[in-house]
Amino acid sequence: MSKLQGKRAVVTGGCGGIGQAICRRFAAEGAAVVACDVANLDQTPPDGVTVQPLDVTDEAAVADFFAKQGADDAPLQILVNAAGIEIEKTVEDTTLEEWNRIFAINVTAMFLTVKYALPALRRAGEASVINFGSYDGFIADPHLAAYCATKGAVHALTRAMACDHGPEGIRVNAVCPGYIDTPMLQSFFQGAGDIESLQQAVRDVHPMRRYGTPEDIANLVNWLASDEARYASGQLWVLDGGLSAQVQQMRL
C-alpha cells in the first residue's frame, strides 16, 4: 500500500525544484496535494496535485487559506514548508530590505503557515510538519550570511514547535539539504567564469562525489510525512552526501 494513501498535504514552494519533486512523490504515494507558490504557476501539475497561488508572507492570505483547509471533513495531515530564497552576500553587502525579505520568506512565513494550519492539523489527530532548514544552519558557506541566519532560526523554531505540539499528535521535523541540483544551485554556478569546473569542484567536495537531486530530498520528506516516521519529531535531518561529515570543507 502507498505510504500516504488518503492523506491530505500542503506544500509551500510547491512549484520550485524541490517542492515539485515532493508534490510528485506525495501524489504517487496516494496523497491529495495542494502546491502553494507565487512563481511557476502555469506549469501542468501531476495527477493528484492542485496548484494554489499563495504569498506565504501575507498573514491574511495564509490565515484565509488554512481556514478553508479545515472547513470540510478531510483533515490536513501534512504540511511541508519548502518556500525559500537565497541571498549571496556578506553582512556588509546585505541591505536591511534584503535582510527583512529573506527572513520574511524563510522564517516568518513558516511561523505563519504553522500558526494558521494548527487547527486543521489538530483535527487529523496525527499530523506531520516538515520544515526546510539547511546544512548552512550548522556550518556556513561564504557570502551567505543572511541565508545562514535564517536556517539557524528555522532549526530552533522546528525544535520549539515539536516540543509545544507533540502532545497534540503533531510531529515537527526539519530537512537540512546540502547542494541539491535546483534552479537555486544553478544560479550559484552562473556567477563563475568556468561553470563546468565549478560544478565538478562541487561534486568532488562531497565524499559521494555528487550533489543531490530533488528526488533525494523528496524520498526523505515522504518518509517523514508517513506513519513509518511516527516516532520521529524535533529532529534536524541532514541530507548532504556526507559533505558536513568531513573535518574541513574545500573552499569553492
Overview of this protein structure:
The chain has seven helices and seven strands; from the N terminus they run βαββαβαβαβαααβ. With 252 residues, the protein is α/β, with parallel strands linked by helices. The protein has one domain: NAD(P)-binding Rossmann-like Domain (Rossmann fold). The chain has a seven-stranded parallel β-sheet with strand order 3-2-1-4-5-6-7, sandwiched between helices. Strand 5, helix 4 and strand 6 form a beta-alpha-beta unit. The longest helix has 28 residues.
**Widest sheet: strand ordering:** 3-2-1-4-5-6-7
Q: How many extended strands?
A: 7
Mean pLDDT rating: 92
Rg, Cα atoms, Å: 18 Å
CATH architecture: 3-Layer(aba) Sandwich
Number of domains: 1
Class computed from helices, strands and strand pairing: alpha/beta
- Largest sheet: number of strands, sense, barrel closure: 7 strands, parallel
Please name the fourth-level CATH homologous superfamily.
Answer: NAD(P)-binding Rossmann-like Domain
What overall form do the CA principal axes indicate? Answer: globular
Gist of the model:
The protein contains seven helices and seven strands.
